Amino acid sequence: MNNSQKYSTRRTKVLLLTALLLVLGSLACLCCGAEAVDLRKALFGETVGNTSKLILLYVRLPRLCACLLAGSALATAGVVIQTVLANPLAAPGTIGVNSGAGLMVALCAAIAPGNLKLVPVAALIGAFLGTMLVMTIAEKTGASRMTLVLAGMAISTVFSAGIDAVVTFVPDALTGYSDFRIGGFSGIGMNRLKVAVWPIVIGIVLVWLLRNELDLLMLGTDRATSLGLPAKKMRILLLALASLLAGAAVSFAGLLGFVGLIIPHIMRRLVGEESSCLLPASMLGGATVLTVCDTLSRTLFAPYELPVGIVMSLLGGPFFVWLLWRRKGGHR
Amino acid sequence: MIEIRNLSVGFSESEPVLSDVDMTLPEGKVTVFLGPNGCGKTTLMRTILGLQPSKKGTILIDGQDIQTMSVRERAQKMAYLSQSDSIPAISVMKMVMHGRFPYLNYPRRYRDEDYRIAEEALKAADAYELRHRSMTKLSGGQRQKVYLAMVLAQQTETIFMDEPTTYLDAGHQLEVMRMARRLADDGHTVVMVLHELSQALRTADTLAVFDHGRMRLMGTPDAVYDSGILNEVFNVSVKRAETEDGTIYYCV
Questions:
Q1: How far apart are the CA of A168 and the nearest CA of chain B, in angstroms?
Q2: If you compute the radius of gyration of chain A from its CA atoms, what whole number of angstroms results?
Q3: How many CB atoms lie within 10 A of CB B232?
Q4: Cis peptide leading into B107, omega within 30 of 0?
Q5: B230: Cβ–Cβ under 8 A, 6 or more apart, which residues?
Q6: What average pLDDT does range A183-206 have in this prediction?
Q7: Inter-residue contact A141 to A147 (CB < 8 Å)
Q8: A167 close to A177: Cβ distance less than 8 angstroms
């Protein structure tokens, strides 16, 4: 077996294993929680008075859909942002998604407290405006990778100050904003997902169609341009798609930025950098991690529930450190 | 054929790095840009390739102004072996296939012909046995061969190489120079930026010498050597000697 075949087999194994974990995680997500759900009873039992069916349809299924959508969208956005900016520390927050969404949600909580329906729309608009502002500044200053990161930092700082100002002047806004900041799927329903489904599906399909362009951008601006790719335009287009994906996910899941940072990292180590494999692997990985963490957040201290953002950071952080530690020792 | 007319290149409007460059890059020959550090050789190459805008003047490829050509059209005419920087964790074959990108239409699916051309390019660059390896597992010399294969897969008339021997040992440097020679013999126009004077004088059919914001001279290695301009520009004494392997040049 030559190196290429070994590599290909390994990638297939990683993809299959992640897909298997996702299926198991999804089943656990549907069945486990404060109230255990018997899937057989829920699916094939009586229609009237079937509590399991009601929980499955109106509580667990929307939650599972939210995990799948947010996980795959954030991980795809992370792959795109890290590749385009050639920066392993880049994440949706780097291009202004989090701060833009955060500011709009804080404003929303201050102006219309208690109106939860407005939060996803405000977050989506904020994420989009934040990214557009970052990219406009970067475009006017050359659209290099460095100017994009610096513009993102500058805008994030200004928006964070804006959030602090809103919370200072309207202390009640902190209640609505803090839930959003931690991130989670508590009380989520299909209605809240409706806003985000199409941007996520369209975003993922377009990123997949542009996977060759993404691979070329990885080679650097000069190489990509000399190979016939309008690199600056493509960089902006791909970042806009990443912003759409991350913004849509953030709109119902809150600031779960960690997925966009660590999942592409882990998957890159396991399957390499070719987008044709890295994108599906990261999508599966992001969805799996969120599904498993969400299940844990509901079951570890049942009937109490921890926000999934906290569980993910508590588990994901040490795991990431362990990966770095392992690499230091020369084991990859 | 690439013609450069009254071209000024650089980063600021008021002080271009190079001004009023007029040259025609001879077809099927090796042309080497020579000059001290910071004289604008790479900037000129990047401007010809359309990687940065010119300040003044015209660049014509087969009579067509590059300003009127799309990035893709330029990539079908000119390939660029840039100085190595990022090393992606992708397979060698995938890397070389990137050379076929200028010929792909949406949805960017590679055809059998593209795979055949990439394999031929790998063979020509003496990198065929590396095709299943990962780019991250290659030595500097092997990596340069792969980049060269990618450039060959682009199937362009003109190939630009920016300091292609940097970081390579003597053996690999000679290999790259032989490859440049072979490409020119096969009808390609090869343009290189080189720092090593003896290598440049030995490999080039034509030398273009730049200094103090101007092209000082363009001519055959012998004509450039005889003019004494290299001694003046580089502040060294260039010598020529006849050996059984041919004419060699060295600096003292």
A1: 45
A2: 20
A3: 12
A4: yes
A5: B34, B197, B209, B224, B236, B238
A6: 86
A7: yes
A8: yes
Asked whether the beta carbons of residue A209 and residue B106 sit closer than 8 angstroms, the reply is yes
CA distance A283 to A266: 12
B82·A226 Cβ contact <8 A: yes
Contact check, Cβ <8 Å, B134/A3: yes
In the block, which residue shows the tokens 């290189």?
B192
Residue B59 has a CB neighbour count (10 Å cut-off) of: 22
3-state secondary structure (DSSP) of residue B11: coil
- The answer for B 139-158 residues in CB contact with A (under 8 A) is 154
The one-letter amino acid code at A256 reads: L
Residues B120-144 have a mean pLDDT of 90
- B88: β partners: none
Six-digit token pair at B173?
């440097």
Residue whose entry in the numeric block shows the structure tokens 């690439």: B2
Q: What is the pLDDT of residues B68-115, one digit of tens each?
A: 999 999 999 999 998 766 788 889 999 999 999 999 988 788 899 999
CA distance A287 to chain B (A): 24
Cis peptide before A120 (omega within 30 of 0): no
Scan for tokens 């600031």, then name that residue: A255
A19: Cβ contacts below 8 Å, ≥ 6 apart: A284
**Amino acid A332: pLDDT:** 42
The set of residues, in sequence order, having a beta carbon less than 8 Å from that of A227 and lying 6+ positions away, is A216, A219, B75, B98, B99, B101, B102, B154
Q: Residues B241, B248: contact at Cβ < 8 Å?
A: yes
User: Which residues make beta-bridge pairs with B65?
Assistant: B60
Q: Give the position of tokens 């890159």.
A: A268
- Look at the alpha carbons of B52, B58, B61, B65 in this order and tell me if their dihedral is positive or negative: positive
Q: Is A134 exposed, middle or buried (0-12, 13-18, 19+ CB in 10 A)?
A: buried
Helices (H), ranges, B76-139: 92-97, 112-124
3-state secondary structure of A34: coil
Asked, as a colleague might, if the bond just before B102 is cis with ω within 30 of 0, I would say no
**Distances A162 to A103, A127, A169, A229 between C-alpha atoms, Å:** 7, 14, 11, 38
> Each residue of A225-271: pLDDT tens digit?
999 999 988 988 998 899 889 888 888 888 776 788 889 988 988 89
| Residue A153, SS3 per DSSP | helix
Count helices and strands (H / E) in chain B.
9, 12
C-alpha span between A210 and A242 (Å, rounded): 12
All residues at 6 or more sequence positions from A215 whose CB lies less than 8 Å from its CB, including other chains: A273, A274, A275, B88, B90, B94, B98
SS3 B188: coil
3-class secondary structure, B205: coil
Cβ neighbours of A29 (radius 10 Å): 27
Measured between CA atoms, the residue of chain A closest to residue B147 is A223
